[in-house]
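ok posting inputs for the ribose-5-phosphate job
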Amino acid sequence: MNDDLKVFSGGSNTPLAKEICDHIDIPLSRLTISRFSNDNLFVQIKESVREKDVFVVQSLTEPASDHIMGLMMILDALRSASARRITAVIPYYSYARSDKKDAPRISITGRLIADLLKTAGADRVLTMDLHADSVHGFFSMPVDHLTAVPTICDYFTQKLDLSQVVVVATDAGGAKRAGRFAKRLNTSMAIIDKRRVSDSEVKQGLVVGDVKDKDVIVFDDEISTGGTLVTTVNTLEQAGVRDIYVGATHPVLCGNAVENLSQSPITEIVVSNTVHIPEEKHFNGLRVLSTAFLFAQAIQRIHTGESVSALFK
Ligand code: R5P
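and the output
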């Protein structure tokens, strides 16, 4: 059944790609990426893909421009090598945050990357927890949009007495996302009034909802600089919460995130492995849950033409 299925890693999250292959029970397919002395990238697919159903795993993490360019070149090389169908598996689509024209003369880069993926040769996209559901509409090809919410919810269900828990959204924009999380856990929710001052600075004011003397789970799609979480935690402490837990799909952990979060009063931060966390960035209280089985199931269903949404029923 898996004879004509191949999975490649674009290099940004090879541990996840290997784990996906282990679940499917196929070897990770081989390619090389190197750099010429003039800084240009070079990509070569090291095995035949003629008439194969090919999946390329690449999260758009730091260095994002290199990882994006590398992915485009891999897609192009696969198409030239006569792959039957090519799926870009993008566990973390970072440019989804660039999803609207909220200032004059800016690029909606989430849409631009979607166009470039198509031009480079992708026939479909498989991704997880896009920053906004509307980003799905940027793609003019089929997109299967997975979520790590059930995985993170299951972890907290086993760990906590949920009768005393309130789920918290870090801002109004994340209320729908946190609402789905709260619904699955059958808890109430609260929303923080967040104002972003700059890329790395956020200001917060009110907590909308009842959190006093409750345990809280702050749920967000990603932790980038950790600025949002640090200010959220301050606000929640002032509001008199008990223990603070965090759930987030994408552990980007850039800038001073590790330093800030490892010193914060958060009891546990539960994330997924859509973004590879190098050993030196792990800290006490950080728990990483694997999404590999979910991606492997989705890949096998796409390969055999079965429903992917059925995975979440
Ligand atoms: C913003 O709208 C997102 O949902 C996250 O809250 C944000 O990306 C986190 O970024 P940072 O960790 O840099 O505050």
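notes: Residues 170, 173-174, 202, 220-228 surround ribose-5-phosphate (CB under 6 Å). The chain is about 30% helix and 25% strand.
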